[in-house]
Amino acid sequence: MSYQVTIEPLGTTIEVEEDQTILDAALRQGVWLPFACGHGTCGTCKVQVTDGFFDLGDASPFALMDIEREENKVLACCCKPESDMVIEADVDEDEDFLGYLVEDYQAKVIEIKDLSPTIKGVRLAIDRNMQFQAGQYINLQLPGIEGTRAFSIANAPSEAGIIELHIRHVIGGAATSYVHESLNTGDDVELSGPYGQFFVRKSDEKNMIFIAGGSGLSSPQSMILDLLEAGDQRTIYLFQGARDVAELYNQALFESWVKQYPNFRYIPALNAPKVEDAWQGFTGFVHQAVADYFENKCGGHKAYLCGPPPMIDAAISTLMQSRLFERDIHTERFLSAADGASSESRSALFRHI
After folding, report:
1. How far separated are the first and last CA of the chain, in Å rounded?
2. Of 216, 206, 213, whose CA–CA distance to 135 is shortest?
3. Mean pLDDT along residues 298-303
4. In the predicted model, is pLDDT for residue 174 greater than 70?
5. Using one digit for the tens of pLDDT, what is the confidence trace for 41-57?
6. If DSSP states are collapsed to H, E and C, what string results for the chain?
7. What is the pLDDT of residue 342?
8. Which of 32, 36, 201, 307 fits a disulfide with 213 by CB distance 3.0 to 4.6 angstroms?
9. What per-residue confidence (pLDDT) applies to 41?
10. What are the angstrom distances between the C-alpha of 239 and each of 217, 218, 295, 303?
11. Which residues contact 9 (CB under 8 A, 6 or more apart)?
12. pLDDT, averaged across the chain
């Protein structure tokens, strides 16, 4: 059984299978609704139902409040139709977004390596090439783990048939624990993608500031490599935040890019370096490194932020105080179920993707 869901103001109708979410059906049919986390914790994919019956699904009470539920608002990433429906969505089309169709893939693990004490690099060979924009992510299905988990793609789109992931171990997290403790080279896994609307606005001529924390480095790494491979001449700044030298992974790679590409700048920041690190670089949080480097004058740039919500919120505040406007700041928050359990995880300052 399937249902017809009409999306206004586009006037587009999609077919949604029984037990399929509206968002999943839309992405697989080339209709890109606004969304971010994909699992009911952020509220980005909120839409208004004007006709029809539905199952709300597992939407966080903080992402979808009681009064919104009473007003027939739903989260497209959780909502499953129980009849034909009509919804109203705030669809903001961007000329730089390519909108590749979401598809399912079979994959084999071809490499696992320790990037840091808490982050593993996993490379997957997929059964056919996936078209994606640098900055997007995939949903990974692991053996014996209920549901899928979202991980950003770290390699450039030019590397055909390969998906590279940077996966941080979340204590108590079933999926990340499996990756760090049980996953082996040669294992078969399933994934779907590409997802996400975090991408470089290549039509904008401004120089670019990338700010990354932890495994949030994966998307900026892909985005920057894609730009450098294409011969982009704009100045590209990468600010990488970590706790200490051991957690500052891929430092040698970025330092090699500095030597190879005259327009690339790399500024690492450690907030708690160890004595044995003999750290000579910036000491403090990554958003403080940005303020220090630009002397609180970030205007005239495009900024791309990727990492945990506290880092994103601090960086947004710094950038806006440094004369960078909201329209030039784009974010990808690494949200977990724990983040969705508190309204404090959502910035009151900013909600632009």
Report:
1. 34
2. 216
3. 96
4. yes
5. 889 899 999 999 999 99
6. CEEEEEEECCCEEEEEECCCCHHHHHHHCCCCCCCCCCCCCCCCCEEEEEECCEECCCCCCCCCCHHHHHCCEEECCCCEECCCEEEECCCCCCCCCCCCCCEEEEEEEEEEEECCCCEEEEEEEECCCCCCCCCCEEEEECCCCCCCEEEEECCCCCCCCEEEEEEECCCCCHHHHHHHHCCCCCCEEEEEEEECCCCCCCCCCCEEEEEEEHHHHHHHHHHHHHHHHCCCCCCEEEEEEECCHHHCCCHHHHHHHHHHCCCEEEEEEECCCCHHHCCCCEECCHHHHHHHHHCCCCCCEEEEEEECHHHHHHHHHHHHHCCCCHHHEEEEECCCHHHHCCHHHCCCCCCCC
7. 42
8. 307
9. 87
10. 9, 13, 15, 11
11. 88, 91
12. 92
Q: For residue 336, what pLDDT band results from cuts at 50, 70 and 90?
A: low
The alpha carbon of residue 213 and the mean position of all alpha carbons in its chain are separated, in whole angstroms, by: 12
Which tokens in the block code for residue 81? 């139709």
CB–CB of 348/316 below 8 Å?
no
At 307, list the tokens.
């990492």
Amino acid at 262: P
